[in-house]
Amino acid sequence: MVELLNWLFGQYADYSTTFIVLELIAVVFGVASVLLASKTNILVFPIGLVSTAIFVYLLWKWQLFGDMFINAYYTVMSLYGWINWSKNKKNQSIEPHESNNVRIEHLHAGDVPILSALAVGTMSFVALIYYFRPVINNGFSFDGAVLGLHLFTWVDYTDMLTTALFLMAMWLMARRKIEHWILWIIADAISVPLYFYKGFTFTALQYVVFTLIAIWAYYEWQRRYRIQPRAAYA
């Protein structure tokens, strides 16, 4: 048991108390935001902003630039989603005790080109960041920095994939599309072992919770869609 705990949390011995506390706060707010999203509660966005803002800072300090880019994008899309959900918030809730419901929609053919462009652009951008990572880690100096695709690791390629999935999911979420939960499920599940490998146990455990919530939330959104007075279209 002691060896297991050391494997899971031993890396935190080298972290400052401030970093550990910030990561825990970000995790708590992150889980809360996903629970709110599953209930189509508009508070998902202000709560989520707290989590993403903290992670942007932490990931910059940890030099995990792909993950930092994800959370920076989340911050921007949270503001967009907050506005979009506010505009589409129903005047009368589906269920009397749920006053924060918004209309839910399905993915349409017109969304596919945007999603494809977002995926390609995201993976290209993150690949560019990792390509120039030696320069970034060298104080943004090319002096002595070695560049090349041969320096990429499986973690880098996995980051490129999960970043694209997360960004597509966040865009669909802001657009109130049910299918965004499918992307969350896939990306969250991949992120669990990825963050364990990176040594961020609290964040990895957060993604375990995210995966379970996302599976439940997908069916919850399907249920809410069926009981809407009429289907809404983008």
Question: Could you please describe the fold and organization of this structure?
Answer:
The chain has 234 residues and is mostly helical. It contains 9 helices and no strands. It has helices spanning 2-9, 17-38, 44-61, 65-88, 111-131, 133-137, 154-174, 180-198, 201-226. Mean pLDDT is 82; it is low at 90-99.
Strand content: under 5%
Radius of gyration: 19 Å
- Secondary-structure element series: HHHHHHHHH
Mean pLDDT score: 82
Oligomer: single chain
Number of helices: 9
In total, the number of strands is 0
What is the end-to-end distance? Answer: 52 Å
Low-confidence blocks of residues: 90-99
Give the structural class: mainly alpha
Sum up the overall morphology in one term: globular
Question: Describe the biggest sheet?
Answer: none
* Percent in helix: over 70%
Which terms would index this structure?
234 residues, mainly alpha
Q: What is the compact description of this entry?
A:
This protein is mainly alpha-helical. The chain has nine helices and no strands. The chain is 70% helix and 0% strand.
Task: Give the SSE layout.
Layout: H1 2-9, H2 17-38, H3 44-61, H4 65-88, H5 111-131, H6 133-137, H7 154-174, H8 180-198, H9 201-226
Helix pairs in contact: 2-3, 2-9, 3-4, 4-7, 5-7, 7-8, 8-9
